[in-house]
DUF3618 domain-containing protein
Amino acid sequence: MTARDVEAERERDAREVVNDALSRLDAAEVTRAVSAFARDNPHVALAAAAGLGFLLGGGLTPRMLSRLGSLATRSYAKSALAQAVELVFDEQTRSQSHLGSSP
């Protein structure tokens, strides 16, 4: 079995799972749940509707998507680097204190 065949089989399995889950949904129940959520959280519902409208209206262009990806990457890299530097300093501090405490 080739890698392409394995990938195609995974896609078929994923589609089956999604189709099975969607077939179990009751439209009336979903409508009631969304309506209840919107009544309980009107600001969140309006923000979600605005965001969805923006996306469906073509607001997320490839250029904007790349900028968002770049921003997320920079943010992740910054936090990962800060954690790595902190870990190195902590390790150095521990090793120096360990060396200083020995007779």
Q: What stands out?
A: The CA atoms of residues 34 and 70 lie 33 Å apart. The chain has two domains: 1-60, 62-103.
